[in-house]
Amino acid sequence: MRKVYFVRHAKPNFSVVDDYSRPLTEEGCKDCKKVTEFLSEKSITKVFSSPYKRAVDTVKDFAESLGLNIHIVDDFRERKINNGLWIEDFNAFAKEQWSNFDYKLPEGECLKEVQERNIKALMSVLEENIDGNIAIGCHGTALSTVVNYFNNRFGLAEFDRIKNIMPFVVCLTFEGRDIINIEEFIL
């Protein structure tokens, strides 16, 4: 059995509008130590991350503590909402996306697209890393679509329940490519 620990990033600084370079807040930076503490006894041999700064920074302290490199996987990035404009009513937008996995704004991604690229990336990581446990720095919506893939009861209500929990960890246990267990951890 192998375990994959998806680590949703710590609290970001929302005053930085650019999704790619948005850093963590001071509180978020402190919470990275909780991530390191949590992961330290999990026999993790590889660390991957979305390319977004807040995801990389959330797993960086842990990776450095074990002398591991962080392997950037672009397909673990967060959902693209649109062409960079801020969404005034994010809750209504999320509700629409969770009720229709094909719904998207111009130049954005639907949840189906996010799910497909994240699952493809996960399966590739599993195939290329047959031994040892894995940590992946990720994002709330992207992670939610991964959990939904394995448990279709994970929908809008569950997304709403976790959307403000940062950092947040979901452990997926695999036997080969088959999912055995899904477990959540609030740090």
UniProtKB/TrEMBL annotation:
GO terms under cellular component: cytoplasm
Database matches in Gene3D superfamilies: Phosphoglycerate mutase-like
The organism's place on the tree of life at top rank: Bacteria
Coiled coil: none
One GO molecular-function entry: phosphatase activity
CDD domains with a match to the protein in the record: HP_PGM_like
InterPro entries: His_Pase_superF_clade-1 (IPR013078), His_PPase_superfam (IPR029033), PGM_Phosphatase (IPR050275)
Protein name as it appears in the record: Phosphoglycerate mutase GpmB
Organism for this UniProt entry: Clostridium homopropionicum DSM 5847
Upper lineage: Bacteria, Bacillati, Bacillota, Clostridia, Eubacteriales
